[in-house]
Amino acid sequence: MAVADRERWDARHTVAGAGAPAPPDALRGREHLLPAGGRALDVACGRGTVAAWLARRGFVVDAVDVSPVALAAGAALEPRVRWILADLDAGLPADCAGPYDLIVCQRFRDPRLYPAFTAVLAPGGMLVLTVLSEIDDEPGPFRAVPGELAAAFAGLDVVAHEEGDGAATLIAVTPPAAAPGSPPTPPDPS
Length: 190
Fold this sequence. Notes:
This protein has a single domain (19-173), classed as Rossmann fold (3-Layer(aba) Sandwich), CATH 3.40.50.150. 22% of the residues lie in helices and 26% in strands. The chain is built from five helices and seven strands; from the N terminus they run αβαβαββαβαββ. β1, α2 and β2 form a beta-alpha-beta unit. α1 runs parallel beside α3 (68-77).
């Protein structure tokens, strides 16, 4: 991300009001789907309202954003979160190697990160994504094409997938790891 982009986000977060801890958009009304706890990663966390919400539910949270202003606001909201300054255009930072029981990313889309999300998600872990979409809206470089999330995460078990009104949402889990000593799962013949 160019310095100008970081400065733009810093300016935006400087004038934003204080946020209150809140669940990710995709889990509102579906909080019962949330894993019992463990490690969580909030990607492009902004002012940290989701990261704080997760920490207050017992998760050990890593929250990543490009804006130091946003991260400072998040740290004031919830000091137990590990706030990580990183340019996601360069990929997930090395500090975020996982495994994570929960990964949340909302309102940030970079398909180059999709394989990294899968790579750091623990067996049985949950991925919660909400991105802008072309469905019922204009196409553009920051908008997902129809079916993008479902295709990108085809190896995960989909819990919910919705597209419409300019947004795409995916809630999916990795298949649980096989128990030690159990035979490997046979390949799908289809």
